[in-house]
Amino acid sequence: MKNITDSFVSLGHWPSAGSLGFNTDILATNLINLSVVLGVLIYFGKGVLNDLLDNRKQRILSTIRNSEELRRGAVEQLERARARLRKVEMEADEYRRNGYSEIEREKVNLINATSDSLERLENYKNETLHFEQQRTINQVRQRVFQQALQGALGTLNSCLNNELHFRTISANIGILRAMEEITD
Question: Which portions of this protein are annotated as coiled-coil regions (predicted)?
């Protein structure tokens, strides 16, 4: 402390002219310089500092207001999106229910159509089998009849001579004439 007071005292005793000297007491000169600079800064910088702080305060308040407005807008959008989501979920559930019932209906229709097709195919198969059986039976009958006829002709040809053959033909012609007279 003594050094500080000595510095102030020595300021008052400076020689008025002639010699200019340096104060080599760094601690004393730094404190004086620092107090002078702080005094000037406080006196002249008070308004600037207040303006800077007020501007900063206004920007912060403006940012907070903008953030609040954005938050409110975001909350409103979120509520609208949630309402839309609920609506879409309800529609999806309805489509799902309708889809399942439609699928069941289509499944039943497909099963019925397949059953009808199988029944028609079964009937067609049975008709085809019956037709083929009848055709085969008719072919067998024709062969048996042809073989019997050939056997009978063979027997007749071996047993008949010309005269017997002529009398048989004449008798058959007579029978045919009698039948013709009866129908007239």
Answer: 64-98
d(CA 144, CA 119): 37
Q: What is the token pair recorded at 78?
A: 């979120």
Nearest-angstrom CA–CA distance, 117 and 124? 10
Its sign, for the CA torsion 27, 28, 34, 35, is: positive
Secondary structure of residue 64 in the 3-state scheme: helix
Q: Helix, strand, or coil here: 37?
A: helix
Distance CA 55, CA 60 (A): 9
Residues 123-153: tens digit of each pLDDT: 999 999 999 999 999 999 899 988 888 888 8
User: What secondary structure letter does DSSP report for 13?
Assistant: T
Tell me the C-alpha distance between 85 and 66, whole Å: 28
